[in-house]
TrEMBL record:
<feature type="transmembrane region" description="Helical">
    <location>
        <begin position="30"/>
        <end position="52"/>
    </location>
</feature>
<keyword id="KW-0812">Transmembrane</keyword>
<feature type="transmembrane region" description="Helical">
    <location>
        <begin position="6"/>
        <end position="23"/>
    </location>
</feature>
<keyword id="KW-0472">Membrane</keyword>
<keyword id="KW-1133">Transmembrane helix</keyword>
<protein>
    <submittedName>
        <fullName>Uncharacterized protein</fullName>
    </submittedName>
</protein>
<feature type="transmembrane region" description="Helical">
    <location>
        <begin position="88"/>
        <end position="121"/>
    </location>
</feature>
<feature type="transmembrane region" description="Helical">
    <location>
        <begin position="58"/>
        <end position="76"/>
    </location>
</feature>
Length: 132
């Protein structure tokens, strides 16, 4: 189950990357942050039965930490403050948590880090139109 969740997360990240490159949306950061949150939530949902069976009540924080970390950049953009810092912090938290739980469920959360890092380095303002 962990392998399926990890492969699904990698495929989802690749699809988001292709869509962003092809469609060139105006607010790339918003798309990347929301996609990272959605992928993290879906991975956590997919791993919930396995984690509850394995860890019991600890599943709440084992799965909750990456979800909360992925939620923070979305909230920061809505508030309009410290977007870059929150993106990098969330990426660091998810990476650290993923490595800490690396022998178990942690690796499935790592693909979303790519989207958070891409959101941190993407341009903050919409791209100017090239059509006249």
């Amino acid at each position: 189950m962990i392998g399926v969740a990890t492969i699904g997360a990698v495929v989802a990240v690749l699809l988001v990357g292709v869509v962003v490159l092809v469609r060139r949306p105006e607010d790339v950061r918003w798309i990347l942050r929301c996609s990272a949150l959605a992928i993290t939530v879906l991975v956590a949902a997919a791993l919930t039965p396995y984690t509850v069976d394995d860890s019991g009540a600890a599943a709440g924080y084992l799965l909750g930490v990456p979800v909360v970390a992925a939620l923070l950049p979305v909230l920061a953009q809505r508030i309009g403050r410290l977007g870059l810092v929150v993106d990098l912090t969330a990426a660091l938290v998810i990476t650290g948590w993923g490595l800490l739980l690396g022998l178990g469920i942690g690796g499935a959360f790592l693909p979303a880090v790519v989207l958070l890092l891409a959101g941190a380095v993407s341009p903050s303002s919409p791209r100017p139109s090239t059509t006249a």
